[in-house]
Protein backbone atom coordinates (compact mmCIF):
# COMPACT_ATOMS: atom_id res chain seq x y z
CA UNK A 1 0.00 0.00 0.00
CA UNK A 2 1.51 3.38 -0.86
CA UNK A 3 1.88 6.27 1.59
CA UNK A 4 -0.85 8.34 -0.08
CA UNK A 5 -3.34 5.59 0.56
CA UNK A 6 -2.20 5.18 4.17
CA UNK A 7 -2.60 8.89 4.81
CA UNK A 8 -5.95 9.23 3.04
CA UNK A 9 -8.56 10.56 5.45
CA UNK A 10 -10.92 7.81 6.45
CA UNK A 11 -14.58 8.75 6.54
CA UNK A 12 -15.87 6.43 9.25
CA UNK A 13 -18.22 3.82 7.86
CA UNK A 14 -18.50 5.69 4.53
CA UNK A 15 -17.85 2.47 2.63
CA UNK A 16 -20.42 0.42 4.54
CA UNK A 17 -23.71 0.38 2.63
CA UNK A 18 -26.73 1.07 4.76
CA UNK A 19 -29.35 -1.67 4.70
CA UNK A 20 -32.92 -0.64 3.98
CA UNK A 21 -34.72 0.50 7.12
CA UNK A 22 -36.63 -2.36 8.69
CA UNK A 23 -39.61 -1.28 10.81
CA UNK A 24 -40.37 -3.00 14.12
CA UNK A 25 -43.41 -5.19 14.81
CA UNK A 26 -46.81 -3.67 15.63
CA UNK A 27 -46.75 -1.90 18.97
CA UNK A 28 -43.17 -0.66 18.55
CA UNK A 29 -42.47 2.90 19.63
CA UNK A 30 -38.73 3.28 19.28
CA UNK A 31 -36.88 1.55 16.47
CA UNK A 32 -33.10 1.33 16.70
CA UNK A 33 -31.20 0.06 13.67
CA UNK A 34 -27.49 -0.40 13.10
CA UNK A 35 -26.55 1.64 16.17
CA UNK A 36 -22.79 1.89 16.46
CA UNK A 37 -20.82 3.72 19.13
CA UNK A 38 -17.13 3.72 20.01
CA UNK A 39 -15.40 5.42 22.91
CA UNK A 40 -11.70 6.07 22.41
CA UNK A 41 -11.61 3.55 19.56
CA UNK A 42 -13.22 0.75 21.62
CA UNK A 43 -16.56 -0.55 20.39
CA UNK A 44 -19.42 -0.19 22.85
CA UNK A 45 -22.26 -0.84 20.41
CA UNK A 46 -21.83 -2.31 16.93
CA UNK A 47 -24.77 -2.70 14.58
CA UNK A 48 -27.19 -2.82 17.50
CA UNK A 49 -30.89 -3.31 16.68
CA UNK A 50 -33.77 -2.99 19.14
CA UNK A 51 -37.53 -2.39 19.12
CA UNK A 52 -38.87 -0.69 22.23
CA UNK A 53 -42.61 -1.12 22.74
CA UNK A 54 -45.08 1.74 23.02
CA UNK A 55 -47.11 2.45 26.18
CA UNK A 56 -44.87 0.11 28.16
CA UNK A 57 -42.13 0.42 30.75
CA UNK A 58 -38.89 -1.16 29.55
CA UNK A 59 -36.26 -1.68 32.24
CA UNK A 60 -32.64 -1.81 31.09
CA UNK A 61 -30.38 -4.13 33.07
CA UNK A 62 -26.93 -5.50 32.39
CA UNK A 63 -23.32 -5.85 33.52
CA UNK A 64 -21.40 -2.84 34.86
CA UNK A 65 -20.20 -0.58 32.11
CA UNK A 66 -22.10 -2.40 29.35
CA UNK A 67 -23.59 0.89 28.22
CA UNK A 68 -27.04 1.16 29.81
CA UNK A 69 -26.79 4.90 30.36
CA UNK A 70 -25.09 5.46 27.03
CA UNK A 71 -27.93 3.60 25.29
CA UNK A 72 -30.69 5.74 26.74
CA UNK A 73 -28.57 8.85 26.31
CA UNK A 74 -28.10 8.07 22.61
CA UNK A 75 -31.83 7.50 22.20
CA UNK A 76 -32.55 10.75 24.06
CA UNK A 77 -30.00 12.63 21.93
CA UNK A 78 -27.67 13.47 24.83
CA UNK A 79 -24.81 11.38 23.43
CA UNK A 80 -24.13 11.40 19.67
CA UNK A 81 -24.15 8.08 17.82
CA UNK A 82 -21.37 7.13 15.42
CA UNK A 83 -23.80 5.50 13.08
CA UNK A 84 -27.32 4.14 12.99
CA UNK A 85 -30.90 5.24 13.02
CA UNK A 86 -33.32 5.82 15.87
CA UNK A 87 -36.96 6.60 15.11
CA UNK A 88 -39.94 7.24 17.37
CA UNK A 89 -43.12 6.03 15.70
CA UNK A 90 -41.26 6.72 12.46
CA UNK A 91 -40.41 10.28 13.58
CA UNK A 92 -37.05 11.78 14.41
CA UNK A 93 -36.08 12.85 17.91
CA UNK A 94 -36.62 16.50 16.95
CA UNK A 95 -40.23 15.71 16.13
CA UNK A 96 -40.77 13.89 19.43
CA UNK A 97 -41.50 15.24 22.92
CA UNK A 98 -39.30 13.55 25.50
CA UNK A 99 -38.66 13.89 29.22
CA UNK A 100 -35.51 12.84 31.09
CA UNK A 101 -34.97 12.12 34.77
CA UNK A 102 -31.33 12.06 35.87
CA UNK A 103 -29.85 10.06 38.71
CA UNK A 104 -28.19 13.16 40.09
CA UNK A 105 -31.17 15.40 40.82
CA UNK A 106 -28.95 17.95 42.57
CA UNK A 107 -27.35 18.84 39.27
CA UNK A 108 -30.49 18.42 37.20
CA UNK A 109 -32.63 21.21 38.62
CA UNK A 110 -31.73 24.85 37.97
CA UNK A 111 -30.58 26.15 41.37
CA UNK A 112 -31.45 29.78 40.63
CA UNK A 113 -35.09 29.00 39.89
CA UNK A 114 -37.82 28.23 42.40
CA UNK A 115 -38.96 24.62 42.24
CA UNK A 116 -42.27 25.61 40.69
CA UNK A 117 -40.44 27.47 37.89
CA UNK A 118 -38.15 24.48 37.33
CA UNK A 119 -41.17 22.24 36.83
CA UNK A 120 -42.93 24.73 34.56
CA UNK A 121 -39.79 25.35 32.51
CA UNK A 122 -40.60 22.95 29.61
CA UNK A 123 -44.05 24.53 29.29
CA UNK A 124 -42.61 28.04 29.23
CA UNK A 125 -40.11 26.93 26.56
CA UNK A 126 -43.07 25.80 24.48
CA UNK A 127 -44.64 29.25 24.91
CA UNK A 128 -47.66 28.05 26.91
CA UNK A 129 -49.97 30.69 28.40
CA UNK A 130 -50.02 31.32 32.14
CA UNK A 131 -53.45 29.70 32.39
CA UNK A 132 -52.19 26.54 30.65
CA UNK A 133 -49.09 26.42 32.85
CA UNK A 134 -51.18 26.87 36.01
CA UNK A 135 -53.60 24.14 34.98
CA UNK A 136 -50.82 21.66 34.24
CA UNK A 137 -49.05 22.50 37.49
CA UNK A 138 -52.25 21.81 39.43
CA UNK A 139 -52.59 18.42 37.72
CA UNK A 140 -48.99 17.50 38.51
CA UNK A 141 -49.27 18.61 42.13
CA UNK A 142 -52.39 16.46 42.51
CA UNK A 143 -50.96 13.38 40.83
CA UNK A 144 -47.73 13.51 42.86
CA UNK A 145 -49.59 14.38 46.05
CA UNK A 146 -47.12 17.21 46.68
CA UNK A 147 -47.06 18.35 50.28
CA UNK A 148 -43.91 20.51 50.17
CA UNK A 149 -43.64 24.16 49.23
CA UNK A 150 -42.93 24.49 45.50
CA UNK A 151 -42.04 28.15 45.96
CA UNK A 152 -38.81 27.08 47.65
CA UNK A 153 -35.57 26.71 45.70
CA UNK A 154 -34.43 23.12 45.02
CA UNK A 155 -31.55 23.31 47.52
CA UNK A 156 -34.09 23.98 50.28
CA UNK A 157 -35.78 20.63 49.61
CA UNK A 158 -34.86 17.07 50.60
CA UNK A 159 -33.38 14.72 48.01
CA UNK A 160 -36.66 12.90 47.56
CA UNK A 161 -38.54 16.18 47.11
CA UNK A 162 -35.99 17.31 44.52
CA UNK A 163 -36.30 14.06 42.60
CA UNK A 164 -40.11 14.33 42.75
CA UNK A 165 -39.77 17.82 41.25
CA UNK A 166 -37.41 16.46 38.56
CA UNK A 167 -39.96 13.84 37.57
CA UNK A 168 -42.75 16.42 37.54
CA UNK A 169 -40.64 18.62 35.28
CA UNK A 170 -39.89 15.71 32.96
CA UNK A 171 -43.63 14.98 32.68
CA UNK A 172 -44.80 18.59 32.46
CA UNK A 173 -45.25 18.74 28.70
CA UNK A 174 -46.77 15.27 28.35
CA UNK A 175 -43.70 13.58 26.83
CA UNK A 176 -44.21 10.71 24.42
CA UNK A 177 -41.19 9.00 25.95
CA UNK A 178 -39.80 9.35 29.47
CA UNK A 179 -36.18 8.35 30.12
CA UNK A 180 -35.13 7.55 33.68
CA UNK A 181 -31.48 6.86 34.47
CA UNK A 182 -31.34 5.22 37.89
CA UNK A 183 -33.82 7.71 39.30
CA UNK A 184 -33.98 6.13 42.75
CA UNK A 185 -30.38 5.19 43.40
CA UNK A 186 -29.57 8.35 45.37
CA UNK A 187 -32.75 8.22 47.46
CA UNK A 188 -33.48 6.59 50.79
CA UNK A 189 -35.72 3.52 50.85
CA UNK A 190 -38.89 5.29 52.01
CA UNK A 191 -38.61 7.93 49.29
CA UNK A 192 -37.77 5.28 46.69
CA UNK A 193 -40.97 3.41 47.50
CA UNK A 194 -43.05 6.61 47.41
CA UNK A 195 -41.71 7.88 44.09
CA UNK A 196 -41.80 4.41 42.53
CA UNK A 197 -45.51 4.12 43.33
CA UNK A 198 -46.18 7.63 41.99
CA UNK A 199 -44.36 6.77 38.81
CA UNK A 200 -46.41 3.63 38.41
CA UNK A 201 -49.63 5.62 38.98
CA UNK A 202 -48.61 8.18 36.36
CA UNK A 203 -47.82 5.37 33.97
CA UNK A 204 -51.22 3.78 34.57
CA UNK A 205 -52.94 7.12 33.93
CA UNK A 206 -50.96 8.18 30.88
CA UNK A 207 -49.40 5.09 29.30
CA UNK A 208 -46.26 7.10 28.59
CA UNK A 209 -43.54 4.91 27.10
CA UNK A 210 -40.78 4.71 29.71
CA UNK A 211 -37.21 3.56 29.49
CA UNK A 212 -35.71 2.93 32.92
CA UNK A 213 -32.10 2.12 33.74
CA UNK A 214 -31.87 0.33 37.07
CA UNK A 215 -29.11 -1.35 39.04
CA UNK A 216 -31.64 -3.11 41.21
CA UNK A 217 -33.00 -6.25 39.55
CA UNK A 218 -36.05 -6.48 41.81
CA UNK A 219 -36.98 -2.89 41.01
CA UNK A 220 -36.26 -3.38 37.31
CA UNK A 221 -38.67 -6.32 37.11
CA UNK A 222 -41.27 -4.82 39.48
CA UNK A 223 -41.79 -1.78 37.28
CA UNK A 224 -41.29 -3.41 33.89
CA UNK A 225 -43.48 -4.69 31.12
CA UNK A 226 -40.25 -5.69 29.38
CA UNK A 227 -36.84 -6.34 30.90
CA UNK A 228 -34.07 -5.57 28.45
CA UNK A 229 -31.01 -7.58 29.41
CA UNK A 230 -27.76 -6.49 27.81
CA UNK A 231 -24.53 -8.39 27.23
CA UNK A 232 -21.02 -7.29 28.07
CA UNK A 233 -19.47 -4.91 25.54
CA UNK A 234 -19.52 -4.87 22.57
CA UNK A 235 -23.08 -4.78 23.75
CA UNK A 236 -25.95 -6.70 22.25
CA UNK A 237 -29.42 -7.65 23.46
CA UNK A 238 -29.02 -10.76 25.64
CA UNK A 239 -32.79 -11.10 26.03
CA UNK A 240 -35.94 -9.01 26.06
CA UNK A 241 -38.17 -10.63 28.69
CA UNK A 242 -41.87 -9.87 28.91
CA UNK A 243 -43.33 -9.51 32.39
CA UNK A 244 -47.11 -9.27 32.36
CA UNK A 245 -48.39 -9.22 35.94
CA UNK A 246 -51.30 -6.77 36.29
CA UNK A 247 -50.88 -3.24 37.64
CA UNK A 248 -50.82 -1.77 40.11
CA UNK A 249 -47.99 -3.95 41.25
CA UNK A 250 -47.87 -3.99 45.01
CA UNK A 251 -46.02 -5.67 47.82
CA UNK A 252 -48.10 -8.78 46.99
CA UNK A 253 -46.49 -8.81 43.54
CA UNK A 254 -43.12 -9.60 45.08
CA UNK A 255 -44.27 -13.05 46.13
CA UNK A 256 -46.14 -13.96 42.92
CA UNK A 257 -44.66 -17.00 41.14
CA UNK A 258 -44.58 -15.03 37.84
CA UNK A 259 -42.55 -12.23 39.47
CA UNK A 260 -40.14 -14.66 41.10
CA UNK A 261 -39.75 -16.60 37.85
CA UNK A 262 -39.02 -13.45 35.80
CA UNK A 263 -36.51 -12.26 38.39
CA UNK A 264 -34.80 -15.66 38.43
CA UNK A 265 -34.65 -15.84 34.66
CA UNK A 266 -33.23 -12.30 34.49
CA UNK A 267 -30.63 -13.15 37.09
CA UNK A 268 -29.58 -16.30 35.21
CA UNK A 269 -29.15 -14.35 31.98
CA UNK A 270 -27.24 -11.64 33.84
CA UNK A 271 -24.92 -14.20 35.47
CA UNK A 272 -24.35 -15.91 32.14
CA UNK A 273 -23.35 -12.58 30.64
CA UNK A 274 -21.01 -11.45 33.41
CA UNK A 275 -19.20 -14.82 33.37
CA UNK A 276 -18.81 -14.84 29.61
N1 LIG B 1 -17.84 10.11 27.47
C1 LIG B 1 -17.20 8.95 27.56
N2 LIG B 1 -15.92 8.84 27.15
C2 LIG B 1 -15.25 7.65 27.19
N3 LIG B 1 -15.82 6.52 27.64
C3 LIG B 1 -17.09 6.57 28.05
C4 LIG B 1 -17.84 7.78 28.04
N4 LIG B 1 -19.10 7.51 28.50
C5 LIG B 1 -19.12 6.20 28.80
N5 LIG B 1 -17.92 5.63 28.53
C6 LIG B 1 -17.58 4.22 28.71
O1 LIG B 1 -18.55 3.45 28.06
C7 LIG B 1 -18.91 2.31 28.85
C8 LIG B 1 -20.38 2.32 29.14
O2 LIG B 1 -20.70 3.38 30.01
P1 LIG B 1 -22.17 3.54 30.60
O3 LIG B 1 -22.12 4.57 31.69
O4 LIG B 1 -23.12 3.76 29.50
O5 LIG B 1 -22.42 2.10 31.18
P2 LIG B 1 -23.49 1.61 32.24
O6 LIG B 1 -23.86 0.23 31.85
O7 LIG B 1 -24.59 2.60 32.39
O8 LIG B 1 -22.55 1.63 33.52
P3 LIG B 1 -22.84 1.36 35.06
O9 LIG B 1 -23.30 -0.05 35.18
O10 LIG B 1 -21.49 1.57 35.68
O11 LIG B 1 -23.86 2.38 35.47
C9 LIG B 1 -18.04 2.37 30.10
O12 LIG B 1 -16.92 1.56 29.89
C10 LIG B 1 -17.64 3.82 30.18
O13 LIG B 1 -16.39 3.96 30.79
TrEMBL record:
The keyword Cell membrane applies. The keyword Cell membrane applies. Keywords: ATP-binding, Cell membrane, Ion transport, Iron, Iron transport, Membrane, Nucleotide-binding, Transport. SMART domains: AAA (SM00382). GO terms for molecular function: ATP binding. InterPro entries: AAA+_ATPase, ABC_SmlMolc_Importer, ABC_transporter-like_ATP-bd, ABC_transpr_FbpC, P-loop_NTPase. Residues 30-257 form the ABC transporter domain. It comes from the Bacteria. CDD domains: ABC_Carb_Solutes_like (cd03259). Pfam families: ABC_tran. This is ABC transporter ATP-binding protein. It comes from Ramlibacter aquaticus.
Amino acid sequence: MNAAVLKAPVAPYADVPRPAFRPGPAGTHITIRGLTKHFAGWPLYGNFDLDIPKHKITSVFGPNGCGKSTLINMIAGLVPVDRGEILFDGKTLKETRIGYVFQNYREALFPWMRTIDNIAYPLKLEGRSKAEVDRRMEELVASFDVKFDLKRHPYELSGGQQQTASIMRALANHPEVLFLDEPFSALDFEMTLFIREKLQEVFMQTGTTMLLVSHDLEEAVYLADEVLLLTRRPTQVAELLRYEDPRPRTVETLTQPSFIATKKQSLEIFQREVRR
